[in-house]
Amino acid sequence: MGGATTQAGTGKDRRRGAVVAALMLSMALAALDSTIVSTAVPQIVGDLGGFSVFSWLFSGYLLAVTVTLPVYGKLSDTFGRKPVLIGGSVLFLVGSVLCAGSWNMGALIAFRVVQGLGGGAIQGTIQTLAADLYPLKERPRIQARLSTVWATSSVAGPALGGLLASYAGWRWIFLINVPVGAVALWLVVRHLHEPVREKGPRTRIDWAGALAVFACGGVLLTALVQGGVAWDWLSVPSIAMFGTGVALIGAVVAIERRAVEPIIPGWVWRRRTIAAVNLALGALGLLMVAPTVFVPTYAQAVLGLAPMAAGFVLSVMTLSWPVSAALSQHVYRRIGFRNTAVVGIAAALLILLAFPLLPYPGAAWQPTLVILLLGAALGLFQLPLIVGVQSTVGWAERGTTTASVLFCRQIGQTVGAALFGAVANTVLAGRLGGAGSLDSVAKALQDPASVADPDRLRRAVAAAVDSVYVGAACAAALALIALLCLAPRRFPVLDQDGERGGERSGEATSGADGNSVGSQDTHQHHSRLSQRTD
Q: What is the pTM assigned to this prediction?
């Protein structure tokens, strides 16, 4: 009997390990996407043309991922994670093949949108499955692995993209997804088994709500991405786009209120814990623009580093973030999810404010140290919130909850790119006494001999980036306020039977939301996917 039990347990562990491997491979596809494509832009433009619109290779993908996250979250709660992940992976791979066969820039942009439609399913469903796979005590393990995938991809992506574009052709950047994705798909189909749930009334899919969310998100994100780039912020196209977006927000609210099973249910914002985490991680997306977008420019234009060395300054964040995230469990088990996140974002606030205090021009190790510490602080901030908020809902609501968190973070990144880009260019123009953009000045500084006063330009870039970091510190302060004012002191986590409990071994929860979790009949069960992979 004991031997049989051990063999059964070993078999389940192997199947769960295979599923985790599939999730990591799938996550790698999504994580590599932007970094691997960015280094091949010169070859793509040289072959297909379309330099004036090449930025839509990234914007189109980002829009598709962002606006589909809530839809896929609801679908995964309704039909299960497996069909959504399989469908999204297939769509991503089809988009990859179509991208490789593109005949002009317009076709490539359209097929990148197809990729993004699949990428939204991959990102949201993998994060949800990570919570399904492991009980609360073991969940940091899978989250740390996924963080490592993102860290490795951000470092390896540019190098891999450059190698493929230089020696195999840019089309292989998309074709390389096919074998990796095929292996991940096979592992999911073979080893991921979800429980057979009791059949209830036929679920009505809120297709009107899904279409309204897609249209609203697409219009508003397009306005943010293109504002100040394709048209001025106060121009007729910009005002028309934002006006249309506001009208569509009203349409989404009206449709979702009448829907039986809304794509974005009201409880996502009525529950204090989920609302606080959504706002905090939206602020995280906002502040992350400062290091990811502006540090490489600062390192090259102000410090005079080569592109590879400038990339290293940013890459140290990918070393400290996963380590800090993995170790955060030892902190939140003692002081709770909210307090751990508060410590992390408070530290991040101080570190962001330290960046403008760096000497000019300074040494390369100084911003590198700041970025290293920032990664450690944000790892301590993000992972407890994701693990904590997923633990406050049952299986049938976890996909929607996870998607709402990721959606808010993506929105924050898009808003941050537009907002901080405008801040940097305004400061730069003020310093130089006229119109100017950070990109144009940074490119000019690559050839100092062509610039009359390079030191003046470098000081202007430094001032612009410093202003961005002050703005990022304000975003961190907003996250801190959201946690302190909205989040309960102890997250009202659910145990394996779907009952509310404290964060530590059945301790009574204080400051609970006061809202019901919803029907528990689909939670009580089937409590862990580790029991589903048999």
A: 0.81
